[in-house]
Amino acid sequence: MPSLKQKRPSMLDGNIIHPKRLVIMTILFILREVTEGDLAKITGIDWGSLSTHLSRLEKSGYIERKKVITNRGLRTVVRITDIGYGTYKEEVEKLKSLIRKAEKV
């Protein structure tokens, strides 16, 4: 019988399921949009790593980034896309299903 880890690549989206990207997507799922600076503060992810993970999510179509002028100057706003929102929900359901299966073992 294959282990849960062996099933992971075909069952879960690696672009979302990575621990840091999962945290980022969870925050965006809840807040819908947030500045990169606030996202860095909330997650505790350093700027270089955050930028790398956001680029990967953006290339996958799960988030959008845009520059906006605020009272504090130019900021980058990160927003979850409809595709990102739907995919995140699907991935969470898959994780719940895996947990239920693991609890039965």
Describe this structure in words.
- By secondary structure, this protein is an alpha+beta fold.
- It has a single domain (14-104), classed as Orthogonal Bundle (Arc Repressor Mutant, subunit A).
- It is built from six helices and three strands.
- The model has no long low-confidence stretch (mean pLDDT 90).
The largest sheet, given as strand count, sense and whether it forms a barrel, is: 3 strands, antiparallel
| Total strand segments | 3
Catalogue the unreliable spans.
Answer: none
Summarize model confidence as the mean pLDDT.
Answer: 90
Q: Quick one: CATH superfamily?
A: Winged helix-like DNA-binding domain superfamily/Winged helix DNA-binding domain
The CATH topology, please? Answer: Arc Repressor Mutant, subunit A
Task: Classify the secondary structure makeup into a structural class.
Answer: alpha+beta
Number of helices: 6
Please identify the oligomeric state: single chain
**Using only CA atoms, what is the Rg?**
16 Å
Layout of SSEs?
Elements: H1 4-11, H2 14-17, H3 19-31, E1 33-35, H4 36-43, H5 47-59, E2 63-70, E3 73-80, H6 82-104
Antiparallel strand pairs: 1-3, 2-3
Characteristics:
Arc Repressor Mutant, subunit A, elongated, 105 residues
Summed up, what is this model?
This protein has helices at 4-11, 14-17, 19-31, 36-43, 47-59, 82-104; strands spanning 33-35, 63-70, 73-80.
